[in-house]
Design brief:
- The protein is of the alpha/beta class.
- Helices cover 39% and strands 22% of the residues.
- The protein folds into two domains: 2-249 and 457-478, 3-Layer(aba) Sandwich (Aldehyde Dehydrogenase, Chain A, domain 1); 253-452, Aldehyde Dehydrogenase, Chain A, domain 2 (3-Layer(aba) Sandwich).
- The protein is built from 15 helices and 23 strands.
- The structure holds nicotinamide-adenine-dinucleotide.
């Protein structure tokens, strides 16, 4: 059975305690590899390597850092097919999604920050009496990057790329549920010319390896993407050490559909924004609010399309809808469908586990895409993050009514608005409590834009220069010139 290894100081290493965690393939429910059950000893070794590499890497000219990162991006592109197949096997997502979204985006994340650092400049403030202030942006030091399972290599690279481009050295931990592509990428780092110790990858459980990173006094900043409860734990632990924190957390995103929208385009995109990656994208719109005058038309067209979705083998190129990531996650999502029935909802389609006829996949983690109506917007199913292929549909009477329901949750990550009325689009966008608003589109991403949420969806922004700001510490230098 394949063993995934830690990557510390440019070398592959077994966990110091000799313990391993089983890694499951969601499509079959079978164990197919093992990952290190790393603990504080491995994190300490990774930290020491990163700390030793910091003076060299932070003083490496930015053009050279850019060249090495750009080479790493090339290597990811050259290995696209193998990485996409591995991502699909590890996560349960359709291989077509991994090869068109996850892996190309991992490549672009690294390429984007390899070039962003070439254009990164800081300000000067000139005072009238011949005093010059300039801002010196220095890399923070050794930083920790912790990522989740839903977009494994995509979100892992979204963190490590700006950290490395800024001149920080990194201790990183991918999710223990989907560790494979970060491991495969670590095999490319030496070939790309990344000096030993600059990027260290420690695999293992969050409460053990992740906690050791957050608790380590030498790790100066934590960039975290994951659940809101975990984010709160991290914030509590890191606060007394005054670590810099970037927290990208959960969501319960509204999708507000007005009667004057382009109906066909909206329906096509809404199927995607509800069920892409089996609904396991933090940006999926899981609460669909539809203007009452088109509610029945919407319901009929949407449910008909969702019923036509085929659940398939994630490794098959034609599959559009695969498995959810793990058995506990499948059980959690199914329990929310049961709760929806208890809360008075009607399941319009889906609603059950799907058991494939293909014997090899009979124990895989499949859930039918599910649409529910008739729920009060304040019930638990409409308030809590489910993070699976389950959406609710609810009619609204006016802009104010839609906004009241949209803003009623503790989250504020992303929102989608469908209307052809430009004034309304701007007005509603301004009044929605969320870090991102898509109007007449979904998941269109420009990597220069600020990315992140408000309320319990997080603190701080990633993307573009925001990410480079996070991984650098500004120092004001003030010079008085002789008169
Ligand atoms: P999670 O919080 O369980 O785990 C995320 C990462 O944190 C994993 O690597 C895990 O090992 C680690 N971790 C867990 N406990 C830790 C601890 N005590 N200390 C340090 N690290 C710890 O989240 P998940 O289940 O992997 O991911 C799903 C969640 O991520 C959802 O809530 C989803 O909305 C959110 N998410 C948010 C964004 C965003 O950009 N805001 C993007 C993707 C996913």
């Amino acid at each position: 059975m394949e063993k995934i290894l830690n990557f510390i100081n440019g070398e592959f290493a077994e966990p110091a305690n000799g313990q391993w965690i089983d890694n499951y393939e969601p499509a079959t429910g079978k164990v197919y590899s093992q990952i290190p059950n790393s603990d504080a000893d491995d994190v300490e070794r990774a930290y020491e390597a990163a700390n030793a590499a910091f003076p060299i890497w932070s003083n490496t000219p930015y053009q050279e850092r850019s060249r090495i990162l750009s080479k790493l991006a090339d290597l990811i592109g050259e290995n696209l097919d193998a990485l996409a197949a591995a991502e699909s096997k590890d996560n349960g997502k359709p291989v077509s999604l991994a090869s068109h979204v996850d892996i190309p985006r991992a490549e672009s994340n690294i390429r984007f920050f390899s070039t962003a650092i070439m254009h990164y400049a800081s300000e000067a403030h000139i005072m009238e009496d011949r005093v010059i202030n300039y801002t010196n942006r220095k890399p923070v030091g050794v930083v920790g990057c912790i990522s989740p399972w839903n977009l494994p290599l995509y979100l892992f690279t979204w963190k490590i790329a700006p950290a490395l481009a800024s001149g920080c050295t990194v201790v990183a931990k991918p999710s223990e549920i989907t560790p494979m592509t970060a491991y495969l990428m670590s095999k490319l780092c030496n070939e790309a010319g990344l000096p030993a110790g600059v990027l260290n990858i420690v695999h293992g459980h969050g409460h053990q390896a992740g906690d050791a990173m957050v608790s380590h006094p030498g790790i100066k900043a934590i960039s975290f993407t994951g659940g809101t409860t975990t984010g709160a734990l991290i914030a509590k632990k890191a606060a007394p050490m005054f670590k810099k924190l970037s927290l990208e957390l959960g969501g319960k995103n509204p999708n507000i559909i007005f009667a004057d929208c382009d109906f066909d385009q909206m329906i096509r995109t809404t199927v995607r924004s509800s069920f892409a990656n089996q609904g396991q994208i933090c940006l999926c719109g899981s609460r669909i609010f539809v203007e009452a005058s088109i509610y029945d038309k919407f319901k009929e067209a949407f449910v008909a399309k969702v019923k036509r979705m085929q659940i398939g083998d994630p490794s098959d190129q034609s599959t559009k809808f695969g498995a959810v990531v793990s058995k506990p996650h499948m059980e959690k999502v199914l329990s929310y469908i049961e709760l929806a029935k208890e809360e008075g909802g009607t399941v319009l389609c889906g609603g059950k586990q799907h058991i494939p006829e293909d014997g090899n996949r009979a124990e895989g983690y499949y859930i039918e895409p599910t649409v529910i109506e008739g729920l009060d917007y304040q019930c638990r199913v409409q308030q809590e993050e489910i993070f699976g292929p389950v959406v609710t549909i609810t009619p609204f009477e006016s802009d104010e009514h839609a906004l009241e329901m949209a803003n009623s949750v503790e989250y504020g990550l992303a929102a989608t608005v469908w209307t052809s009325n430009l004034t309304r689009a701007h007005r509603v966008a301004q009044q929605i409590h969320s870090g991102i608003v898509w109007i007449n589109c979904w998941l269109v991403r420009d990597l220069r834009t600020p990315f992140g949420g408000v309320k319990n969806s997080g603190v701080g922004r990633e993307g573009g220069f925001e990410a480079l700001h996070f991984f650098t510490e500004p120092q004001n230098v003030c010079i008085q010139l002789k008169s």
